[in-house]
Fold:
Amino acid sequence: MTRQDHEAFGPQDGVDVAIPATLPRLPGLDHTLTMLRQGYDFIGSHCDRLGVDGFRIRLLGQDAVCLRGPEAAQLLYGTEGLTRKGAMPATVLRLLQDKGSVQQLEGEEHRRRKGLFIRMLMDKDRLDRLVHGFEAAWRAQLRPDMDITVMDLANTALARAACHWVGLSPNKRRMARLTRILFAMSDRAGHFGPATLATLWQRRGVERWIASEIRAGRMPEGSPMAILSQDMPPKVAAVEVLNLLRPIVAVGRYIAFAAKALHEHPIWCGLFNSGNADYIPDFCEEVRRTSPFFPFTAAMTERDVIWQGATIPAGTRVIFDIHGTHHDSRFFPQPDRFRPERMLDWTLDDPAFAPQGTGDLATTHRCPGEAATLALMSSAVRMLCCEMRYEVPDQDLSVRMNRIPAQPASGVRIRVQAID
Structure:
């Protein structure tokens, strides 16, 4: 299939897009519990029912607007007058980013800090070192005739590779604990309760340890830790080091979904194993489109903003529906079918495909780690298909759509038969 053929799977001319003159409001005093209960389907289902691409709700006692579609993506990732400050609930912010991090900055300060992340995550040599470290850590865990969970396998390999890559050298005991905490940071982000508070406490301990390593100068020259420590105080640099480590480990969830897709669509593994590895990125991009990862992203309006003829007042939280946009038939025909032949490509900057944001990488809040995400996913898929033989025993591979972030229930258990 050519890239021209891909156009057949994109937005179609003549497709009606709902353009409300006003944004309807859902009935009810507050919709926080409803959103948590319905999960990934909350925004899309209400948009479909109302025949619109956006509506108003009350979230955590405050006005909010829920939007879907490429225009909504462009609003959050390219329109002036929006900020990430105050957009996330406090627990989510502190688990995923923390105050003072790059995602909480705006203007020139944001562009300067973002440039450091682009330098670290998109340089080919640095990215190759990260991927090679991941592959070595993955292979080191395998032996024939073993049962293992793909999510655990990936999380452990990603955590070891990421720590070495940023410039940390934890001992074996600390590495095991770090792996659990780094995974929990994203795993608990959509939950509230004692376990979330415990993870917040553990994150603080990790930040203090990283800051102490920075103050002591215990990091290789030219490592991401060294780069960050030159530009900011140790406490802030420690926050940003965690904002490298945590997202890298979170890729393990995508890898588990990729393993599930390989099991459910075995033709692709056979294709990759027969010398067609060039199609692995297309497979991984479709995994990113179809998999329920983080469902939404949010911003706050600093002034009145116009969207599709409707005024969104200053001080309103705006929530963009990533999952619903990726499953909208106007932009992805037969959206519930797994079709790597769509040949999606994050570098084409299609605002309908925005698993980690859209728009200009250097100036918007788009995640700078997409190249790393795709490289790590592609590496895992290649190793699953080309370096090992395994069987998938009977298990629960269902995905709860009201668990945020979602995952295959079993984590995808495999029984390794041979290592090639």
User: Anything to note?
Assistant: Confidence is low (pLDDT under 50) at residues 1-19.
